[in-house]
């Protein structure tokens, strides 16, 4: 697993308050109770503040699973 | 006339009319009624009898909607539960209602046979149609039983305020496990509004696609959902302003600033917000384009309102007291709980536990009676302290509760959530509040937490904070 992926996994696990083992590329909003709309908002906010990326509306709307988040982080960097 | 009878009548008048749009599948009125009969037939085969209770695990699916009305068709009672509820909550409901059947997966009730026997509509207005359990913010779950007549009256009241009709197309965004979503589903189908399902709010890209593709003209959301829409898409929703005819909001506090934003973004849309609780659903409506933003709405439409003093005498206009409501569609009693029923009514009016006052023709909310903090005999509404705290740029959310104090009896304790970017010290907050609030209202204790516990409708769960 590359560093960027590890970093994203850790951030999502930390924001949702779940074990990092729960996170995988296919995990999507709604798949676990912790990842509800509030959890999703917190992930978006954490991406912007902790990973210092800026997402436009279209990018934000594209994010539905972990892989989308990794893509957004990669493109933004 | 019951809701299910109305749906059957619509089929006789216009069987080919589209009534539900389930993603890319359009369901005609005739197909809808056939499927309700289909499910009712299956339930009958499982010995579901008239006036027995059927627990249905809610989902925003076509199968769930058919099951809900199939139970009504058999004159059984729908006990709709959120499958994500805690196990002990679900167990409490099972013990309380002793169901004749539990539908955990509505899809399984669809018969594959082509010749389905029609089930006679046995629903009568006086019979109980739904039993809803309030997870609420306090105590053990309470069963609210509503008759077909009460649900019909409630539906007509919603329609008279929201105004959706047979030309509208409504996107269902709120969960059908709660009375808000159920109310929207019923009032859309009753009015002949096409109900669009299959687009959960948390998939915002799909939601916008649905608004465009199905030419959606209205929807209902709770304030937390509005916050989610803003966070995910900023002002993108404005692109659809001209096609949206109505938005119903409800179930939690919505700031005057948010109302103003909505007004400016939707100048031609009927924007209404309801006030009420499961027991007296949608008692009062406020209209953002007409009523003061701070008010809960106008008092002389449909629901009688009284403001009660602690001894249950009626308070005059402008004087704060407990809000009590009386309407045709309010609950008659709590399920198997005569003591709670007796304690909840005063002279035929249901006591809400909310503090409020009437000014002119409008009702204003001032707090929650059971949440009032008694600081040495002075009453503090936690909402007043929270409003002051939320004006600090460092604080994204907060909640205040009573904290035991040997001298004052109780003092205010604040739980605060800081914004992602900023934090500040307790001293800084105290300094900020010094000239904003009188001393008895200023929190004596602070605790920094990650998020404020709230119900699915966005209400603060203060009991959880008190026990933390």
What does it look like?
- The complex is a heterodimer of chains A (77) and B (468).
- Chain A is an all-alpha fold and 77 residues long.
- In chain A, 58% of the residues lie in helices and 0% in strands.
- Chain A has one domain: ACP-like (Non-ribosomal Peptide Synthetase Peptidyl Carrier Protein, Chain A, Orthogonal Bundle), CATH 1.10.1200.10.
- Chain B folds into two domains: 3-364, Rossmann fold; 373-466, ANL, C-terminal domain (GMP Synthetase, Chain A, domain 3).
- In chain B, α2 crosses α3 and α5 packs across α6.
- Chain B is globular.
- Chains A and B meet through α2 and α3 of A and α7 and α8 of B.
- Which sequence of SSEs, written as H and E, runs from N to C of chain A? HHHH
Cα separation of the termini of chain B: 49 Å
- How many domains of chain B? 2
CATH architecture of the largest domain in chain B: 3-Layer(aba) Sandwich
Fraction in beta strands of chain B: 25-35%
**Percent range of helical residues of chain B:** 25-40%
- Please name the two chains that share the biggest interface, counting residues whose Cβ lies under 8 Å from a Cβ on the partner chain: A-B, 21 and 21 residues
Give the assembly state of these chains.
Answer: heterodimer
Tally of DSSP helical segments of chain B: 13
* CATH H-level superfamily of chain A: ACP-like
Keywords:
heterodimer; A: 77 residues; mainly alpha; Non-ribosomal Peptide Synthetase Peptidyl Carrier Protein, Chain A; 58% helix; B: alpha/beta; Rossmann fold; GMP Synthetase, Chain A, domain 3; 2 domains; six-stranded antiparallel β-sheet; globular
């Amino acid at each position: 697993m590359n560093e960027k992926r590890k970093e994203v996994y850790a951030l999502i696990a930390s924001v949702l308050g779940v074990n990092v083992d729960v996170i995988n590329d296919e995990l999507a909003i709604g798949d676990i109770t912790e990842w509800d709309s509030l959890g999703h908002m917190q992930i978006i906010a954490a991406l912007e503040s902790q990973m210092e990326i800026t997402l436009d509306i279209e990018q934000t709307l594209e994010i539905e699973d972990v892989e989308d988040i990794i893509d957004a982080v990669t493109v933004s960097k | 006339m019951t809701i299910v009878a109305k749906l059957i009548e619509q089929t006789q008048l216009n069987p080919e009319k589209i009534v539900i749009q389930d993603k890319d599948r359009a369901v005609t009125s005739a197909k809808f009624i056939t499927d309700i009969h289909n499910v009712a037939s299956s339930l009958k085969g499982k010995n579901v009898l008239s006036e027995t209770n059927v627990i249905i695990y809610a989902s925003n699916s076509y199968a769930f909607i058919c099951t809900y009305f199939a139970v009504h068709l058999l004159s059984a009672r729908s006990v709709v539960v959120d499958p994500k509820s805690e196990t002990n909550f679900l167990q409490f409901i099972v013990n309380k209602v002793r169901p004749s059947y539990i539908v955990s997966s509505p899809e399984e009730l669809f018969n594959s046979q082509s010749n389905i026997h029609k089930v006679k509509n046995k629903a009568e207005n006086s019979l109980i149609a739904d039993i809803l359990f309030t997870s609420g913010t306090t105590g053990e779950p309470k069963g609210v039983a509503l008759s077909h007549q009460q649900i019909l009256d409630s539906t007509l009241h919603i329609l008279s305020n929201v105004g959706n009709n047979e030309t509208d197309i409504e996107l269902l965004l709120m969960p059908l496990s709660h009375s808000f979503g159920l109310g929207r589903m019923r009032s859309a189908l009753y009015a002949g509004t096409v109900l669009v399902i299959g687009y959960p709010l948390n998939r915002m890209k799909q939601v916008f696609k649905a608004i465009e593709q199905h030419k959606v003209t209205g929807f209902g959301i709770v304030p937390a959902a509005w916050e989610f829409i803003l966070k995910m898409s900023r002002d993108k929703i404005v692109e659809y302003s001209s096609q949206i005819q109505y938005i119903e909001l409800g179930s939690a506090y919505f700031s005057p600033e948010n109302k103003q934003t909505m007004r400016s973004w939707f100048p031609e849309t009927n924007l209404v917000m309801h006030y009420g609780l499961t027991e007296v659903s949608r008692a009062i409506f406020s209209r953002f384009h007409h009523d003061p933003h701070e008010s809960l709405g106008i008092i002389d439409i449909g629901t009688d309102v009284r403001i009660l003093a602690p001894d249950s005498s009626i308070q005059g206009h402008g004087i704060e007291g407990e809000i009590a409501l009386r309407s045709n569609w309010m609950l008659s009693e709590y399920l198997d709980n005569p003591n709670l029923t007796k304690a909840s009514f005063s002279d035929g009016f249901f006591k809400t536990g909310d503090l409020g006052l009437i000014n002119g023709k409008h009702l204003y909310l001032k707090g929650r009676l059971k949440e009032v903090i008694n600081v040495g005999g002075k009453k503090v509404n936690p909402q007043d302290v929270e409003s002051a705290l939320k004006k600090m740029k460092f604080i994204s959310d907060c909640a205040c509760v009573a904290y035991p104090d040997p001298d004052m009896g109780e003092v205010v304790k604040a739980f605060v959530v800081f914004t992602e970017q900023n934090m500040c010290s307790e001293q800084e907050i105290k300094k900020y509040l010094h000239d904003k609030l009188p001393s008895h209202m200023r929190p004596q204790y602070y605790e920094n937490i990650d998020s404020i516990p709230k119900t699915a409708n966005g209400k603060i769960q203060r009991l959880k904070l008190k026990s933390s």
